[in-house]
Design goal:
Length: 121
C-alpha cells in the first residue's frame, strides 16, 4: 500500500506565495514522479540527494573542496534537494525544507558526530 503524502510535504511558501510541494517537484522533475508517497521516500532521495557520487557533481557549485565532514555533506544535500525540488530560486530566496526530508538527510549525514546540533544551522 502506498504511503500518503505527509503533512510537511503539502505546501511551502516561496516569496509570499504558497505552492504545493509535490506538484512543484513533479513540474520541475517529471522523470522523478512518484504517486502517493512522502518526499523523503521518493527514489530520487536515494539516487540523488543522499548519494555521495551524485552530490560530488555539485561540490564546485555550492561548497568548498575537499568535503571535510558531515556538516559539509549535510549542507550540500540540503542545497541539492532545494535545486532538485524547486530549481534556482534566486539570490536571497530561502525556503523551509520539509521536516521529513531534513530527517532523512540528518540520518544519512548525522551532525551529532561533528559536535554540532541542528539549532546551529
Amino acid at each position: 500500500m502506498a504511503e500518503s503524502v505527509c503533512e510537511c510535504c503539502q505546501t511551502i511558501k516561496i516569496e509570499g506565495k504558497i505552492f504545493n510541494v509535490v506538484k512543484r517537484i513533479r513540474e520541475q522533475n517529471p522523470q522523478d514522479e512518484e504517486e502517493g508517497k512522502c518526499l523523503a521516500h521518493w527514489k530520487a532521495m536515494d539516487t540523488k540527494i543522499l548519494n555521495l557520487s551524485y552530490l560530488q557533481g555539485y561540490i564546485s557549485d555550492f561548497c568548498k573542496d575537499p568535503m571535510e565532514n558531515n556538516v559539509d555533506w549535510f549542507y550540500l544535500a540540503c542545497r541539492v534537494f532545494t535545486r532538485w525540488a524547486f530549481g534556482v530560486l534566486g539570490q536571497g530566496v530561502r525556503i523551509k525544507i520539509p521536516e521529513c526530508v531534513m530527517k532523512r538527510i540528518s540520518e544519512t549525514f548525522p551532525l551529532y558526530q561533528t559536535g554540532l546540533l541542528k539549532q546551529d544551522f
